[in-house]
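Researcher: Good morning. I'm working through a list of sequences from a screen, and I'd like to move beyond sequence-only analysis. For each chain I'm collecting a predicted structure so we can compare shapes side by side. This is the next one on the list. No need for commentary yet; just the structure.
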Amino acid sequence: MAQALDLDENAVHSLLLAVPIGAVGGLAAQPALAVCGAPAALGWLREVLDLLSEEMCELGLPAAGLASRLRLYIAPAYACFLLAPALHQGQSTRHVPVPLEGGQQCTKCGKLYYNAVAFLVGQLNQVLADQAAALATDEEGPDLLPLLQLQLVLQRQLRLCLHQLHLWLASRSQLLLASWQTSAYFLLTMADLPRCLRLLDSLQSAPPLDLVRSPMPELQEAVRERADSDRRLDHLCQLLQGCQTASLSSVSEACRSTALASLDRLMPGKLYWRRPAMAASQPSDYVRQYIDDVLEEVLRAVCQLGGSLQLTVGGLVVKVACHSWMEYIIQHNIKFSVAGARQLGA
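Model: Good morning. Structure tokens for this chain:
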């Protein structure tokens, strides 16, 4: 009996990056995996391995889990290929808007993270479907073990990707709010983050393994590791959801700080408001600058968001700006003449 195939990592890497792959088993020749895109190429590769598995079985050679074992190398390698430019772009302080379908926008770095998450979620969903099929055929040992190993590797890669995404969002959003760069802030928190969360929502539930009774110690260990991996992945997903929940409250506090600082710089002194002769129909000179400092960039930024978010965010900052205005007046005990009060209303 021939020995099971020993998959060498260097040989697999050559499949990912090297010359075009020739025709196998009657299938048309395909380009290298990194050129044609991993999701499509992995689907083609799986067809090839299924044909090889059938031929190996006819020859009496062990072929169980061949496709899953090869994907153990290829899928993580391609995930790293997608994640590397996101990590590099995340160091940049420029947040270049990238157009999306429907007139929406995201950041360049956010789109790179999205591509990596989308690939890993798609691969995990395929692995989970394969696990359910293996459990349905009661072939727990030879078919299920490589699928569990592949799931653990993919989940580890996804956790790494989500951890880096969380660090980038948390640190960069704080810096953007502190300097009141709201256009970039809303792209991160209201475009990049929700797109990735929608991908995570599409992640399928893992089939239950409570009834697995295989005596293989490797399989039992993989079952235990999967339960721990699932918990750690859920924790990261909850952290990202918490970022989205906290984003509006962070905007409110930053808007208040920016508004009070702007009023402290622009607001006329007490004597200005007590003048008896004032043009009540004309707003004061400082008002236009106050609107520019606090509201204009925000309102321009939310135009790139959906309708419901425009109302939520736009209404929030206008409310906070007005409340901050009144707060400043009360704090500094500013008293108005009748004409001054009318001008304030204008």
